[in-house]
Automatic annotation (TrEMBL):
Pro residues compositional bias, start-end: 404-422
Top-rank lineage group of the source organism: Bacteria
Keyword Transmembrane helix (UniProt): yes
Pfam family, one: MMR_HSR1
Protein's UniProt name: G domain-containing protein
GO MF annotations in UniProt: GTP binding; ribosomal small subunit binding; rRNA binding
CC per GO annotation: cytosol
Chain intervals for the UniProt region annotation (Disordered): 375-524
Keyword Membrane recorded: yes
PANTHER family per UniProt: GTPASE ERA, GTPASE ERA, MITOCHONDRIAL
Amino acid sequence: MKVLRRVKEVPLDNRLAALAEAAALAEGRLDQAAVEQARGVAARAAARRGLSVGHTVVALAGATGSGKSSLFNAVSGTSLAGVGVTRPTTSAAQAAMWDPEGSGPLLDWLEVPRRHSVEAADAALGGLVLLDLPDHDSIEVAHRLEVDRLVAVVDLLVWVLDPQKYADAAVHERYLRGLRRHRDVMVVVLNQVDRLAPAAVDRCLRDLRRLLDEDGLAGVPVIATSVPRGTGIAELRAELARRNADHRVWADRLAADARRAADLLAAASQGPAGTAGTAGTATATGGVPVAEVAVDPAGLRRRAEEAGDALGGLPAERLTAALAEAAGVPLVVAAVAKAHRHRSIAATGWPVTRWLRRFRPDPLRRLHLGVPPGGRHLVAAEPGGPSALPPPGRQALPGAQPAPAQPAAPGQSPPPVLPGPDGPGAGPAHPAASGQNPSGRAAAAHGAADETRSDQTRSASGTSAGGGATPDAPGGRTAVPATSRTSPSASPATRTSPGVPGGRPVPERTSLPPATAVQRSRVDTAIRDVGSAAASGLPEPWAAAVRHAARSAQGEVSDRLDRAVATTTVGAGRRPHWWRLAGAAQWLLFAAMVAGALWLTALFVLDYLRLPEPPTPTLGVVPWPTVLLAGGAAAGLLLALLCRLAAAVGAARRAGRARRALTAGVAEVGRELVIEPVRDELDRTGRFAELVTQART
């Protein structure tokens, strides 16, 4: 036997809170009309709950000539509403109140100035507020707007239809069909049945029930009434008394509003498919289309979670590979290997020829990535330090926008100003964005706060930044050329910041060549592939948001890649211990060779001067001076060759470590600027689906 479990209903407070949060998450992503509808429901719910909950507001709504005013008088037992043949008869809403105490603020909120007190013959009607509304199909626009406004906020709706217009599309398409979630707070009255024969009344009621079922209003009470005959008046009054008895109709109405607004958000989350086939279907609260298709927030959440789990797959690997190539990682890795071999030869090569290495530049220092061979690190990354400037002429990736600088927090001093090529005050120590080199390549603009500090510093020092300002920066701000940020007394790759204890070098920029057009295109394609892969299977509004999130930080990619390369420590400056031993051995062999050469020279001079030759020791039959000269030279050359082989092995190992370290740094850039925004958007999508499900339950 199949066990049916009853779904636990979410409390109204939680439902409304979920709706408000879902609307906030949908802002800028889904149809704005649906978002505003949800916000309006949350706002109206907060206002209604702050007013009298001991009163139930019931509205009689209907078309012209349906007999609303007559029914209003009959139910209230008064003649307050004017009745006549001139249309429209009712021009403004009026209220009949049973037990009016405390209802004033509620009616003020409803903007119903015409109020009348009615003595309650039935105690169950105590607290009932009955409204007579204008005609919803009135020729007066103000009347129709009044009806739309009140239908959206009253607690209980009584739709008064007549035998001639009960099937009118104006009421079914504009109101009833859009209020399927409100069937628990709705009553339908077929008025003026005295104009029909008894048999025709039954046929009319059956046809009306069929139409209501098609509108999704199955189970809504349908009462046949006739004011002249008094038919159904007592039944209608009893129905109103029953609904009013527990004074909870207002909560049912708010719950229905929340469910319907959640339906609209769920339909909007499906994109065009969510509102397909609903053209012309409007609601009573602003004409927002109601979805006719089945929407599945739980499925949306599941797809978002699956997409988030798959983010670390092939698209992310391709993104890392494209970023590494654009960042110049292969070039840096090759430079690390060459620099290791270069420094090894300089430290362990044959002393006779090693000095020639001084005329060859260090491969890493040529890229402004290295430190002197005796240094400890390739570059010293300063935790929390300033961003590195991009290299001269480094072009931004396609679609890149400059990241605005963050101004200094109140009470904090601006960053220290370092000397530039034209004197002190050429630029701040913490540049916010890339500049422009003298060749005219695109520059990223500094934030307004950094510009102000730089201008003030330049004014105080009486000098200006080299190269002048560039008027073509985005946003109409002035871009400062990158050449004005380099200190002539510091290495182009690092500089000593006066604000850093110990004067540790802070990376400024590299001299890697700019990414080529092909590399930039590959990065752009890889970023788009990540967004497309994550958006696969999601409805178009959320898929578009995910794709946009993948590209949201694209303007920072170029600068962050350069900083990642500049701040990654690969240990290329560390000297292996065997270099010192091999170097010492080379000098000993060189000393032996020199000693042998001097010894032979002395013997040659003595022989030339025909002086007595002192006894010369031998190694076998070879004199020791010759052994020292030839042996020292041969051993030195052999040791240099062996050291070169060892350096090649070490260079390969260091290149591998550098590749892994640089790839990890580049992957971190991709994770922070591409993967994490996409993951956040997917989390937002899943959270939205969860909240919509909660609001609909």
